[in-house]
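Request: When convenient, would you put together a sequence paired with its structure tokens?
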Amino acid sequence: MGFGAEFYKGIFKENPSFRLVLGICPTLAVTTSVENAIGMGLAATFVLLGSNIFIALLRNFIPDKVRIPSFIVIISTFVTITDLVMAAYAPDLHNALGIFIPLIVVNCIIMGRAEAFASKSSTGASIADAFGMGTGFTLALILIGSSRELIGNGTLLGFPILFSSFKPAVIMILPPGAFLTMGLLLGLFNYISRKRSS
């Protein structure tokens, strides 16, 4: 499979949030705004890219018995870099995302791609996979975050978008709104997938 095909599969065909339904905990928790969604998506993409590259490069040197612990050490290195850089240069975003930045270490998207793809593929293919999955995850977070922020606050990226007479549905920025939005978007993606395959 070429670079483009590996990249594109993460955006729709194997989208981590809407097709594989992975990484749902941060997806539901941090998408109260578009800014949080973008921050989390970029952080996860950086970790995914760095860990995929290193795991692909070292796949022939890591013994099977310590494969998973080795992956966790590599992933946690990139999570630590992300956490420290975000704390230094984007402290408000770092505070908003809170515990979900360190929890990227055990995010099943990152671990899943390390085990199922990077440990069995070339570095080039692993880079394409990381970019595709990271982009798909980021777009999913932005879609959920923009829906919740727009309906729940009447804003996008903090700027008022809807008319002043608009009455926000506050439930959308609360936990039930996350489940409602996710369910509706999952249904939409399944409908589109069925239409495309028929």
In short: The chain has one domain: 3-148. DSSP finds eight helices and two strands in the chain.
